[in-house]
Amino acid sequence: MSTNPYESPKVPTALQSTPNEDRVTALRSVRIALLILLVPAVYNFICFNFPSYANRIELPIHSVYLTINSIGIVLIVSAIWFFGLTILEFVAGGLHAILARKSILDDWKATLYIIVRRTPLFAVPGAALWAIWVAAFYQLQLGFYIASVPIGVAAHLLAACLYVPLFYRWYKMERAAARQMTT
Fold first, then answer.
1. What is the Cα 60 distance to its own chain's centre?
2. Superkingdom, according to UniProt (predicted)?
């Protein structure tokens, strides 16, 4: 038998590209965190679109708001599910291009993946804070600022537990790369 000259070359299995395990784990973490945060999001959606007070007046525009909000939630959840990690990688690449030209982008992304793996752990208290805010605002009918300020401060501190270590690691990487260039 003769060889087919149009046949694609054989690639050894060792050379075939395999997905980056850290990226796959980070993607899974983003999706788990999204599912965790979807619970208070639906609770917020229900409380916003179907208020519990008795003297509400049903306006025709309500169905328009309900439709727009439903479409918005589906689009946002879909975008985060499919492109959430890609967006984070894009932002990391942009920050790297602007702030850290001495270090290696792949190292930045590897650090991003390590930090993103923690997101489900932080999504649980984040979801609890969001649910507490929804209950305080809609069920207890506390004022917006009374509910939002303390819960918002706690939520921002919780988020800082993710991005501050990331920024610090990136800073250390850039400093180490700059030191290596000078020596």
1. 35
2. Bacteria
pLDDT in tens, 71-85: 999 999 999 999 999
Instruction: Please state, as a whole number, how many other Cβ atoms lie within 10 Å of the Cβ of residue 158.
Output: 15
Convert the chain into a string of H (helix), E (strand) and C (coil). CCCCCCCCCCCCCCCCCCCCHHHHHHHHHHHHHHHHHHHHHHHHHHHHHCCCCCCCCCCCHHHHHHHHHHHHHHHHHHHHHHHHHHHHHHHHHHHHHHHCCCCCHHHHHHHHHHHHCCHHHHHHHHHHHHHHHHHHHHHCCCCHHHHHHHHHHHHHHHHHHHHHHHHHHHHHHHHHHHHHHHC
- The token duo for 114 is 């390590």
Angstrom distances, CA of residue 54 to CA of 57, 58, 68, 152: 9, 11, 24, 29
Tell me the per-residue pLDDT of 25-84, one tens digit each, with 9 for 90 and over. 999 999 999 999 999 999 999 998 887 665 666 777 888 888 999 999 999 999 999 999
Predicted structure pTM score: 0.84
